[in-house]
């Protein structure tokens, strides 16, 4: 397969196809929900799948350090292919299963949590959330904890004032716990971006595959993320090669020592 050919994932609607990655020169942003042996969800992987998928991605992309999102002059723009790993909602399996794999691979991630749901526990993994103390443990590892509203509504279906309350309250919760830096990051539930999200101007806001792949400086509050599709591991190699081809601007060539230079100290 030509690496510029877009892989098609069977069974996935056209609007949710993951083949479009990042605009050239911006981090490839991946999102996950669960890393759990028993959860079935389009962005839920078993621990083994998550480890193997991340190893495949890291063969073509170096880790983007989440702290570089918070540079005083704006996010640091990579000069080579990098990947930003993100998790949505704040499920407890992110700590139990994803954390040790991230540590082994030397990857730091952004965990977008629903601040009003933290601390809720259940035997059902999709209703079992991190506590604030568990979020602190992730932060101590060098991961960032950021806002994903308080209760995970469809923001684009709410009256503007109610949607803005959800957004601002969750940002305030994050700022109170982790300071103003992480409160400059936000992710929209379901990828639905309201007409008036009410975000401060310095906030980087992340969507899903529903957002187009625009350079971050031109669409800082509608950043596209994509994913490794669950149940379709056979497509992953083609997807990663396609994302890598998209990242490289036309006519540009990578220096052979690029990848050796970028890998920094592991956490």
Task: Report on this structure.
The chain is of the alpha/beta class and 267 residues long. It has six helices and nine strands; from the N terminus they run E-E-E-H-E-E-H-E-H-E-H-E-E-H-H. It has helices spanning 47-58, 93-105, 132-140, 160-178, 236-247, 258-262, and strands at 28-32, 34-35, 44-45, 62-63, 82-89, 109-113, 144-147, 185-187, 204-206. The strands form three sheets. Strands 1, 4, 5, 6 and 7 form a five-stranded parallel beta sheet that branches. It has a two-stranded parallel sheet with strand order 2-3. Helix 1 packs parallel to helix 2. The longest helix is centred in the middle third of the chain and has 19 residues, at 160-178.
Query: Roughly what fraction of the amino acids lie in strands?
Result: 5-15%
Radius of gyration over C-alpha positions, nearest whole angstrom = 17 Å
Q: What characterizes the major β-sheet? A: 5 strands, parallel
Uncertain segments: 253-267
How many DSSP helices?
6
Instruction: Please report the total strand number as a whole number.
Output: 9
Mean pLDDT figure: 91
Structural class: alpha/beta
What percent of residues adopt helix (DSSP H or I)? 25-40%
């Amino acid at each position: 397969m030509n690496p510029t050919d877009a892989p098609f994932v069977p069974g996935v609607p056209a609007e949710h196809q993951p083949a479009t990655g990042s605009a050239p020169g911006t981090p490839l942003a991946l999102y996950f929900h669960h890393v759990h042996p028993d959860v079935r969800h389009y962005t839920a992987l078993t621990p083994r799948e998550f480890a193997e998928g991340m190893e495949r991605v890291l063969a073509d992309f170096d880790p983007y350090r989440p702290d570089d999102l918070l540079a005083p002059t704006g996010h640091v723009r990579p000069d080579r292919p990098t990947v930003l790993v993100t998790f949505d909602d704040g499920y407890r399996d992110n700590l139990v299963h994803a954390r040790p794999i991230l540590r082994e691979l030397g990857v730091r991630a952004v965990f977008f949590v629903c601040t009003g749901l933290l601390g809720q526990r259940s035997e059902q993994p999709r209703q079992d959330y991190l506590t604030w103390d568990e979020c602190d443990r992730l932060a101590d590892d060098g991961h960032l904890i950021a806002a994903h509203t308080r209760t995970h509504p469809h923001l684009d279906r709410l009256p503007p004032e109610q949607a803005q309350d959800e957004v601002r309250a969750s940002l305030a919760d994050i700022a109170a716990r982790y300071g103003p830096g992480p409160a400059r990051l936000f992710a929209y539930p379901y990828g639905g971006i309201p007409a008036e999200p009410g975000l401060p101007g310095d906030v980087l806001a992340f969507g899903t595959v529903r957002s187009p792949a625009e350079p971050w400086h031109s669409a800082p509050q509608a950043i596209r993320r994509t994913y490794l599709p669950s149940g379709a591991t056979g497509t992953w190699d083609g997807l990663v090669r396609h994302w890598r081809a998209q990242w490289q601007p036309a006519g540009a060539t990578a220096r052979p020592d690029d990848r050796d230079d970028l890998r920094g100290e592991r956490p």
